[in-house]
């Protein structure tokens, strides 16, 4: 059984906690794209954990975790993340963590490039991309330029060190053009020695591992980081990530392009949030925004940045569901809407005086206005509800309306950040 769990919206839908919940049903959890540019927050009986690179299954001792070839791995960050979990009593060994030999390594100069370019953009245009400044776009660019180092090279450092001087010389051409201090071969060698060596024992051909596990009847879950609207092809370019965040890419980014997904579960938030720049049609401002932000604790897990918030956006969500090929939806954070007598929904966009239903091209989004409809709220605390029957009528109506508007079944609803704070609707 191959299942992908993906974000339907702009990210931070609560994928981490749903993966943590559902991972109990799977033998293997795989990350297949992105790097340490996003954060999953997982709360369970062992504490609260923020995961940037490690798959969420790492918190379950019986699950094997895979970091696939579609990922970009900041080895310094990964060493730190492993250490922070170990400090909290989580065991991480080559038995429960396997890193693809084909995944690429985010280098310190990629992080520098990201910072230099965001600062240049800010100065030149006043409009940065809103990057998390963790080197993700530059390392994906290096990968496609075939200049990146791959995790498998940590097993053959002599080959890596042979390539290093020319790559450093090439990279310094860019760094110097920005007016920054060039990097040195020695510093990069130290970097590999300090942070690469301790990770070498986890590096393997994850395709071989996953195929034999699949043949042996093991179930595999693919965990996306970031939502559909941050996908490099289908998202709100350029305010996207630099990788494929969609479910169809999961087998490729994990190392098993020969296998097909059996199921795609989309994680969708009961309202909207968006971190960073870019068009966000349904955005709230002022008091309305502050109330929702406070209720949902909308501050970035990786960066601490306040997230932009707004009502549920039908146009964007329906598009996200289609991009993810979602069979089922987990609707998260419904409890955040507890304190509303009336709940707003952005059901359509208004463009040049006309109402539209299809999510438009990024540039056109700037001209769109939200078309808002209002439904009655439940206006009571639902965080203790555990069964469908426990939910107030208005909450059930809200769920049913979103199902109808988005044409997709809502199988799970979450009503709190804790592992058991959810309701199975079907
Ligand atoms: P991810 O990037 O999609 O994994 O999401 P984040 O972890 O960045 O953001 C989700 C936040 O919402 C985290 O702080 C979670 O603890 C919290 N959260 C998840 N599900 C629920 C829920 O049902 N209710 C409430 N109140 N908080 C939730
Ligand atoms: Mg997040």
Chain-averaged pLDDT: 95
Secondary-structure-derived class: alpha/beta
Number of helices: 12
Rg calculated over all Cα atoms: 22 Å
Task: Walk across the major sheet and give the strand order.
Answer: 9-7-5-2-10-1-11-15-19-20
Approximate helicity band? 25-40%
Shape: globular
Stretches where pLDDT is under 50 for at least 5 consecutive residues are none
Using DSSP, what is the number of strands? 20
Strand percentage lies at 15-25%
Biggest sheet details: 10 strands, mixed
Small molecules held by this entry: guanosine-5'-diphosphate, magnesium ion
First-to-last CA distance: 20 Å
- The oligomerization state is single chain
Description of the molecule:
The chain has 12 helices and 20 strands. With 426 residues, the protein is α/β, with parallel strands linked by helices. Helix 2 (75-87) runs parallel beside helix 6 and helix 3 crosses helix 4 (136-144). The radius of gyration is 22 Å and the shape is globular. The strands form 5 sheets. The protein has a 10-stranded mixed beta sheet with strand order 9-7-5-2-10-1-11-15-19-20, with helices on both faces. Strands 14, 16, 17 and 18 form a 4-stranded mixed beta sheet that branches. A two-stranded antiparallel sheet has the order 3-4. It has helices spanning 15-22, 75-87, 108-125, 136-144, 157-177, 185-196, 206-215, 250-254, 286-296, 314-324, 362-365, 393-406; strands at 2-7, 28-31, 40-44, 47-51, 64-67, 72-74, 97-100, 104-106, 203-204, 220-227, 263-269, 272-274, 308-310, 312-313, 328-332, 342-351, 354-356, 369-376, 409-414, 422-424. Bound molecules: guanosine-5'-diphosphate (GDP) and magnesium ion.
């Amino acid at each position: 059984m191959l299942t992908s769990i993906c974000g339907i919206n702009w990210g931070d839908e609560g994928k981490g906690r749903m993966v943590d919940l559902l991972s109990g049903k799977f033998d293997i959890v795989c990350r297949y794209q992105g790097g340490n540019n996003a954060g999953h927050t997982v709360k369970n009986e062992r504490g609260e954990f923020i995961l940037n690179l490690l798959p969420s299954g790492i918190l379950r001792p019986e699950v094997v975790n895979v970091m696939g070839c579609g990922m970009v791995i900041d080895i310094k960050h990964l060493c730190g993340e492993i250490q922070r979990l170990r400090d909290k009593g989580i065991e991480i060994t080559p038995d429960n963590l396997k890193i693809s030999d084909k995944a690429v390594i985010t280098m310190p100069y990629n992080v520098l490039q990201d910072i230099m370019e965001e600062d240049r953009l800010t100065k030149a245009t006043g409009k940065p991309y809103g990057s998390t400044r963790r080197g993700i776009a530059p390392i994906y660019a290096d990968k496609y330029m075939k200049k990146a180092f791959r995790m498998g090279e940590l097993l053959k450092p002599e080959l890596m060190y042979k390539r290093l001087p020319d790559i450093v010389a090439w990279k310094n051409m860019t760094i110097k053009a920005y007016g920054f201090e060039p990097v040195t071969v020695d510093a990069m060698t130290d970097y590999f020695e300090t942070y690469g060596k301790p990770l070498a024992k986890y590096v393997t051909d994850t395709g071989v591992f996953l195929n034999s596990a699949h043949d042996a009847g093991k179930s595999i879950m693919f965990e996306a980081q970031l939502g559909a609207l941050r996908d490099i092809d289908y998202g709100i370019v350029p305010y996207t990530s630099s990788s494929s965040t969609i479910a169809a890419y999961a087998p490729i980014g994990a190392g098993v392009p020969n296998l097909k997904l059996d199921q795609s579960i989309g994680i969708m938030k009961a309202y909207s949030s968006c971190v960073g720049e870019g068009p966000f049609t349904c955005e709230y401002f002022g008091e309305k925004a502050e109330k929702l932000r406070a209720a949902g604790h909308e501050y970035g897990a990786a960066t601490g940045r306040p997230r932009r918030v707004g009502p549920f956006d039908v146009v964007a969500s329906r598009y996200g569901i289609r991009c993810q090929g979602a069979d089922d939806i987990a609707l998260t954070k419904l409890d955040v809407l507890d304190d509303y007598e009336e709940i707003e929904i952005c059901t359509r966009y208004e463009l040049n005086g006309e109402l539209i239903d299809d999510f438009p091209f990024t540039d056109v989004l700037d001209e769109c206005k939200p078309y808002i409809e209002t439904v009655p709220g439940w206006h009571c605390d639902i965080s203790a509800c555990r069964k469908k029957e426990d939910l107030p009528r208005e909450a059930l109506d809200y769920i049913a309306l979103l199902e109808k508007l988005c044409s997709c079944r809502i199988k799970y609803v979450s009503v709190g950040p804790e592992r058991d704070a959810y309701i199975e609707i079907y």
